Amino acid sequence: MYILYIPVNTLLKILTSANNKSLHLAAGNGLLDRRLFLQGGLALGGAPLLAATTVAATPARPDWMNRPGEPFSHYGQPSPHESEVARFASPNRVWRNNGVSWTPLHRLEGIITPNGLHYERHHNGVPQIDPDAHQLLVHGLVRQPLFVSMDNLLRYPLRSQICFVECGGNSNAGWNKTPSRAEAGYFHGLVSCSEWTGVPLSVILTEAGIDSTAQWLIADGADAFAMNISIPMAKAMDDAMLALYQNGERLRPENGYPLRLILPGWEGVLNVKWLRSLKAAAHPIMARNETARYTELLPSGKARMFTFTMEAKSLITSPSGGMVLQQGPGLYQVTGLAWSGRGRITQVEVSADGGETWAPAALQEPVLPKAFTRFRIPWQWDGAPAILQSRATDETGYVQPEREQLLAARGRHGFYHYNAIVTWSVDKAGSVSHVYAAQQEQSGADLGIDAGWD
Amino acid sequence: MLPNKSSLALISVLTLAGIDSGADPTAAGPNLGEPADRRAIDSHDRGIMPDGAGLPAGGGTAVQGKVSYDNLCLSCHGPGGLGDSGDQLAGAQMQLTDEWPEKTIGAYWPYAPTLFDFIRRAKPMAQPGSLTDSEVYALTAYLLYLNELIPEDREMNATTLPEVKMPNREGFIQVLD
């Protein structure tokens, strides 16, 4: 259970009585102007009102002030009080090295995912690679095949970019006939956002001298699965990165140490971890993971393949499934994340009445292309049942689809690339749960998604 | 510091390739890659193209492959490839257009050589890389046989494997976006 924002009814009353025009309802069922918190903070300081209700019970000098604290540490760890902020692992029931672990998006803030909480997708475990025994081979249709050692690669001019990486199979419980009861991050958290630092892939490819007939780059990983996949040369020469660092430190083993590909905005499986070789080729290799998997079966029986871009998606992370508006009716902040593999998020709209009316949320800076964008909007919950939704628009004008639109276009056996609007239901007790929109089926057997992660 | 001759050449190549590097001379690298010889490349390059390019010598039949399968694969993929904790590999009853499509090798995979590529690089999960090329051919043959695509005694090798026409060969739409 969670305790969300303590309602600040007083704040609202004060602001309302000030006859501030911006306080007019922005959409139905209590959604307020997105600037309210900003203005409230400026006018009233906000926090003291909260403090009055929360600090009263604490002693003047708590116990931890009466003895020396803990010593210095070589590598800091989260507070033991935050132990529930953890990935949720979902391995194959027999082969435990194959599966996924989910980022707890519903327990995080801001736009950067801590390195220890970045989602994982491993096909056969995490290799522990000695960087001195690891090289990158660039070969195939090149003028000069090259080996590049990790030490040498670190001497190239580095560049940083904040971007998300999202598994093609993220959110795929959405294809189910019955709404998943998993918490938001354990349903949508096969996506994480980091600052990646490395060498532009184009620099190394140019050094090797790519032949004009090479339209593809076949990447191989150094894990037990020897993961391989094909990448269009145009993307490789555009914004692809040979990533060495994640949020300032060298990659974590589970994120590809010592070297991985980052292809901003493209589905996770292409961002090959533990990168070992790149082969320039005229055609794709048609690997298992770009034919038998990571393709999307349509109702026609045909399947979409080479679906690279992760389309715009948004998600309210708080309040979200499993949470309780414990303090009853009052003012809450609705917040969440939006991202698009095609560029910047230009708008996130929020509805509190099941999509009848929508209000624009505030987009928190920085708003970066192909990165998480944090959105926020104040909501005055009146204590009645409510339906919360968010809807993202990106700079191409693409609008996140309704679930029924996505199902109509793709059927329900695509497994990958589920990006429909997410609906949270708030009951009169304040309990939040995942539902599908009212007009859709709510009952029947939970038939489940029709393919596993293997 | 003035750029040296090779980095100037690199910048012009990048410009020709349509890459905006002119404003940022650091976009050119220090050229620290070391030449890779053929033998080193061959030892790394294990990929098999869908037309069979890269397939090695050796060969095997379904009869031989069944022995390896029952020892190494059955515990996850079930008897006859019918699936268990691992994927269902054969025996699809439902079509791809049915309510519960079964995306087995015979029903879904577009290219037979992909099987060789995947088995050799990734299987068996407990000892990846341990199979001989002929064992991989034999396992490939057994899986194709289970999917009723080849007879039990048909040897799969570098010549015959690319000739196996997969039923779903034309089943994919290349979105490329």
Question: Tags for this entry?
Answer:
heterodimer; A: 454 residues; alpha+beta; Sulfite Oxidase, Chain A, domain 2; five-stranded mixed sheet; five-stranded antiparallel sheet; 9 helices; globular; B: 177 residues; mainly alpha; Cytochrome Bc1 Complex, Chain D, domain 2; two-stranded antiparallel ribbon; 7 helices; disordered N terminus
Kindly describe this structure.
The complex is a heterodimer of chains A (454) and B (177). Chain A is of the alpha+beta class. Chain A has a domain at 120-286: Sulfite Oxidase, Chain A, domain 2 (Alpha-Beta Complex), CATH 3.90.420. Helices cover 13% and strands 29% of the residues of chain A. Chain A contains nine helices and 26 strands. Chain A has helices spanning 9-17, 36-44, 47-54, 150-153, 185-188, 201-208, 233-238, 288-291, 403-410, and strands at 25-27, 31-32, 88-91, 99-102, 120-122, 135-140, 146-149, 159-166, 191-200, 216-221, 228-232, 241-246, 249-250, 260-262, 275-281, 296-297, 303-305, 313-318, 330-339, 345-351, 359-360, 362-363, 373-381, 386-394, 423-426, 432-435. In chain A, the strands form seven sheets. Chain A has a five-stranded mixed β-sheet with strand order 7-6-15-10-11. In chain A, strands 8, 9, 12, 13 and 14 form a five-stranded antiparallel β-sheet that branches. The longest helix of chain A is centred in the first third of the chain and has 9 residues, at 9-17. Mean pLDDT of chain A is 90; it is low at 1-22, 41-53 and 439-446. With 177 residues, chain B is mainly alpha-helical. Chain B has a domain at 59-163: Orthogonal Bundle (Cytochrome Bc1 Complex, Chain D, domain 2), CATH 1.10.760. Helix content of chain B is 35%, strand content 5%. Chain B contains seven helices and four strands. In chain B, helix 3 packs across helix 7 and helix 6 packs across helix 7 (133-146). Chain B is globular. Chains A and B meet through strand 6, strand 7, helix 6, strand 15 and strand 17 of A and helix 1, strand 1, helix 2, helix 6 and strand 4 of B.
